[in-house]
Write a structure and sequence with these properties.
By secondary structure, the protein is α+β, with helices and mostly antiparallel strands. The protein has seven helices and eleven strands. It has one domain.
Length: 262
């Protein structure tokens, strides 16, 4: 029988700033916004766009898989991801960082607790007010028209894309990183790297055509120890990922003082 003990959690909260228009696709079923080919995902209660935790998490994972050169060996629907299929793969060279952090499907043999939880991020109240006053094309969003050109006949086919405009802020974004063993502290660096990789790439769709550039701002770090989980230990707030990366060794030292293994 394998014992799993949670020693504590590191909590990361931040703002996500859309530096260019952001498109994370939703379903147009029943929305009655005729003429829009690609709609954004919205909260059914508020009708405001939001960033699904799965989109953030999935993009971080895919970028880390590419950076680490991991085999794309597990097809899930229309995408292929890396998955350690055997325990020896999962634990090789100190453990596969991607599978430890993001988890593996339950049906494979190599299993262990998933370290990273990423919550959905709503549109901030300030951005809701600003976009409502801006009288955008649709509620909280803009319509971007693109034209596909037939390479042979030069015939043009227009298509419309719904985006959250540049300047919008989504907050609070919340990432929760659990510590089950001493090696998990070092794995936190891959989470920070994943955020930086995402920032240098794009979030959502149509990134190669200018959409989806984001920046993580006002990044606050806190921790809870399993020995007294009700006690929240705030640490510092950083204006950018660059500041957080520069202080990462200090972060590890502080976190190890709060979350003690053994």
């Amino acid at each position: 029988m394998t014992e799993i003990k949670l020693y504590g959690r590191i909590l990361i909260t931040c703002e996500i700033h859309a530096l260019t228009g952001l498109h994370i696709g939703g379903s147009s079923t029943g929305l009655e916004i005729g003429g829009v080919d690609n709609t954004v995902i919205r909260d059914p209660l508020t009708n405001a766009p939001y960033i699904p935790g799965s989109s953030l998490r999935g993009k971080m994972r895919s970028q880390l898989e590419k950076t680490l050169g991991l085999a794309q060996n597990n097809r899930i629907g229309q995408v292929t991801i890396h998955t350690c299929k055997k325990p020896q793969e999962y634990h090789k060279d100190g453990g596969c960082p991607v599978c430890h952090i993001f988890g593996v499907p339950g049906e494979v043999e190599a299993t262990g607790p998933t370290l990273l939880l990423v919550r959905d991020t709503p549109l901030s109240a300030e951005s809701k007010d600003a976009l409502a006053q801006a009288h955008t094309d649709l509620a909280y969003s803009e319509i971007k028209t693109e034209v596909a050109i037939d390479r042979v006949t030069s015939a043009a086919t227009p298509r419309t894309l719904e985006r959250v405009p540049a300047g919008a802020v989504f907050a609070p974004a919340e990432l929760v990183f659990s510590i089950y063993q001493g090696a998990d502290f070092a794995r936190l660096k891959h989470v920070v790297d994943g955020l930086q990789l995402l920032e240098d790439d794009y979030l959502g769709g149509y990134g190669s055509r200018g959409s989806g550039k984001v920046a993580f701002r006002q990044i606050s770090i806190a921790a809870r120890s399993g020995k007294d989980y009700s006690q929240l230990h705030p640490w510092q707030t950083f204006s950018s990922l660059r500041e957080l990366e520069a202080a990462f060794n200090d972060l590890l030292q502080w976190a190890k003082g709060i979350i003690q293994i053994g």
